[in-house]
Amino acid sequence: MAQPHGRIFNFSAGPGTLPVEVLEQAKEDLLNYRGTGMSVMEMSHRSKAYEQIINEAEADLRSLMGIPEGYKVLFLQGGASLQFSMIPMSFLGSGQTADYVVTGTWGKKAIEAANMVGTAAKIFDAKDTNYNRVPEFGGLNLTAGAAYVHFTSNETIQGVEFKEDPNLPVPVVCDMSSNILSRPLDVSKYALIYAGAQKNMGPAGVALVVVREDFLAKAPEKTHPMLDYRLQSENGSMYNTPPCWTIYICGLVYKHLLAKGGLKAMHAVNEKKAGVVYNAIDSSNGFFKPHAEPNCRSLMNITFTLPSDELTATFISEAKAEGMVELKGHRSVGGCRASTYNSMPLEGCEKLAEFMKAFAAKNG
Ligand SMILES: Cc1ncc(COP(=O)(O)O)c(C=O)c1O
């Protein structure tokens, strides 16, 4: 079926595809946002109209994620990458240790930044199997008195995902950049959740931080203003000019997800979508080889290899000719990666799976 507006299926790992309905709403609002006579991009962040936009975005996110009382929601700049530094700078005191679970490229970057600040202990590292697995939370050897434990709920490059929330006796900090809002979660199990917007939430330019107030209270009283969670929290994420447009689009995405039935409904569709593609891998008699172990296969980033680099290149170019793009895998894994974020329609995954089956039959 042809996609609206001549759109194609964009399997990019990020920035990723956005819901058509959201883009249509943004188009309608573009020149004159609901009678204000200006676009959101041109509006003062101190205006009544913008105040309503950011407050509604937060309220809708709280309802979508089931964020309990006692948590602050922040919209910050610097992407998820700045959080790699801000977290240890704020919560890893001298003489303390923070534990890091390294299941892929992003977890590795997070611990590298922490090591520049203080003592970060790598309590799990799947490097020996090229990051194709995740540990059981119960089997982790936590450092006694650790300031926090950090993990990456979904490794975007390797396509490995934790399937449940942790239940650990230390503050849990989680990078959810590539699977936030893809399934229901229990926020109360986390001290701090962060995520770049550009996969499941909106355009690039904002990092969402959900932080428990008692954990936030451990941040230093005074630090550089733009690195100060307290200051950002006290100023409602508006210590300086926020990325107004990005937050507005995130707000539209939250409303869209609520209207679609929330995270439970998204999870059911995401399982179906990823299932269709994994089935094409598993039924290919070894033509396509999955990278991730079966128990941690990501619903968001499906990684697989083909028998040769030549066949991989042909696969990617033939898929592109059929209207399916951004399927090239990261060089550290090789092969292909299909990112099937919330906004990828089921038809996109079905079309990819059919194409994979036909390709394997022709070239296997
Ligand atoms: C899991 C994960 N963490 C962190 C990042 C870095 O995000 P940003 O580019 O917003 O700094 C990414 C980007 O793809 C990611 O996938």
Order of helices and strands: EHHEHEHEEEEEEEHHHHEEHEEH
Return the domain count.
2
Q: Would you tell me which CATH topology of the largest domain applies?
A: Aspartate Aminotransferase, domain 2
CATH homologous superfamily identity of the largest domain = Type I PLP-dependent aspartate aminotransferase-like (Major domain)
Largest sheet: 7 strands, mixed
Bound molecules: pyridoxal-5'-phosphate
* Major beta sheet, strand line-up: 2-10-9-8-5-3-4
Low-confidence stretches: none
CATH class of the largest domain: Alpha Beta
CATH architecture identity of the largest domain: 3-Layer(aba) Sandwich
How many beta-strand elements?
14
**Average pLDDT:** 97
Question: Strand percentage, roughly?
Answer: 15-25%
Number of helices: 10
Helix content: 25-40%
First-residue to last-residue Cα separation: 28 Å
Q: How would you classify the helix and strand content by structural class?
A: alpha/beta
Radius of gyration: 21 Å
- How would you describe the shape? globular
